[in-house]
Amino acid sequence: MITKEMTIRQVLEKDINSAEIFLDSGMHCIGCPSAQAESLEEAALVHGLDPDVLVARLNNFLGAE
Q1: Rounded to whole angstroms, how far apart are CA atoms 45 and 65?
Q2: Each residue of 9-60: pLDDT tens digit?
Q3: Terminal CA-to-CA distance of the chain, rounded, Å?
Q4: I need a surface site. Which of 6, 10, 18, 37 has the fewest CB within 10 A?
Q5: What is the DSSP string of 36-61?
Q6: How far is it, in rounded angstroms, from Cα 65 to Cα 61?
């Protein structure tokens, strides 16, 4: 299950194909240093996204919901 506290890197380690969700959301920073340290919540807010919606999309994609 994906949580807002996880980093982009942690999500990508679970399934590299989740990159599609980040890219579709306008988050093209999946390889930048911030992806290693920022939480999903922080990254979503920086990109003007609702963190809860992003997490829900990732969990849906990964079949965790």
Answers
A1: 22
A2: 999 999 999 999 999 999 987 878 877 888 999 999 999 999 999 999 999 9
A3: 8
A4: 37
A5: HHSBHHHHHHHTT--HHHHHHHHHHH
A6: 9
pLDDT score recorded for residue 31: 79
Q: Quick one: which of 14, 8, 5 has its CA closest to 41?
A: 5
* Cβ-contact 19, 57 below 8 angstroms: no
Nearest to 41 by CA among 28, 30, 55: 55
CA pseudo-torsion sign 65, 61, 25, 47: positive
| Predicted local distance difference test score (pLDDT) of residue 50 | 97
